[in-house]
């Protein structure tokens, strides 16, 4: 069944979109990530313009984050003060990212910039994730105690310290602000929630307890993604509601199946699979940038002044 997307100005099979949303939901349920870093490039592959794909994919991140935040709030595993500091940095970064996005869009270079950003980002993250996953598998096969993580670093000596009771931390607000800003810029320019970057940063950089990391990350991502979606809708008019609703429906169904599958697999094997998927998407995007297009030249109609 062909469906015309008014904002994207393309016709796409509705069942293909539903299946795409279901696939990303499946991966989200299996690997515990928002899926924004996969749904956006996959939308590129089926002909959705990058500007629309970036702006619309944030809607699915919002929808998938709501239930997670509510569940963690019931368990009291959300550090709300820390989440608010991360959110403050995220709003600043998102506003900056929207400005950069609009700048490149006015120059007609947003498609190239978004795709290049994905190639560099997915290649780096996928490579690091793959290496770390292999190391984790090798460590699990060795006997002996695991090395202890260092509890303090230079970031703990920065000024303007605040006590975060739920995390048991007394640290400067500057590191979480910087992490939030980075995730905010990524969300605006690339249409990702940033959870797969924020979670390691919260554990290894901010040294937060794992039990509050996921809930706090979802808390920040929920509000940041909603803000990013609103800003794209206001400034660019690139949010396609029809596309968003179909992706959300497929994602909700797929996430339920993915959660069941993921619970039966080892964490190390899941991370290796996720890394391979990320690298495969990165490779496909890189090829699309160097392939010779089917139409070497195109002429856009320009109104006479």
Provide a brief overview of the structure.
The chain has helices at 14-31, 36-45, 50-75, 80-106, 110-141, 174-190, 195-205, 210-235, 241-262, 267-290, and strands spanning 2-5, 10-13, 161-164, 169-172.
Task: Give an overview of the whole structure.
With 305 residues, the chain is mostly helical. It has one domain (2-286). Helices cover 70% and strands 5% of the residues. The protein has helices spanning 14-31, 36-45, 50-75, 80-106, 110-141, 174-190, 195-205, 210-235, 241-262, 267-290, and strands spanning 2-5, 10-13, 161-164, 169-172. The strands form two sheets. It has a two-stranded antiparallel ribbon. A two-stranded antiparallel sheet has the order 3-4. A hairpin with a 4-residue loop joins β1 and β2 (10-13). It holds the Pfam family TauE.
Topology:
Blueprint: E1 2-5, E2 10-13, H1 14-31, H2 36-45, H3 50-75, H4 80-106, H5 110-141, E3 161-164, E4 169-172, H6 174-190, H7 195-205, H8 210-235, H9 241-262, H10 267-290
Antiparallel strand pairs: 1-2, 3-4
Helix pairs in contact: 1-9, 2-3, 3-8, 3-9, 4-6, 4-8, 5-10, 6-7, 6-8, 7-8
Transmembrane segments: 12-39, 51-71, 83-104, 116-138, 185-206, 213-235, 241-263, 270-291
Pfam families: TauE
Subcellular location: Cell membrane; Membrane
Order of helices and strands: EEHHHHHEEHHHHH
What does the main sheet amount to? Answer: 2 strands, antiparallel
Q: Structural class, from helix and strand content?
A: mainly alpha
Name the shape in a single word: globular
Ends distance: 41 Å
Beta-strand segment tally: 4
SS element count, helices: 10
In what range is the share of β-strand residues?
5-15%
Q: What is the spatial order of strands in the main beta sheet?
A: 1-2
Radius of gyration over C-alpha positions, nearest whole angstrom: 20 Å
Mean pLDDT: 75
Q: pLDDT under 50 segments (min length 5)?
A: 298-305
Domain module count: 1
Question: What share of residues is helical?
Answer: 55-70%
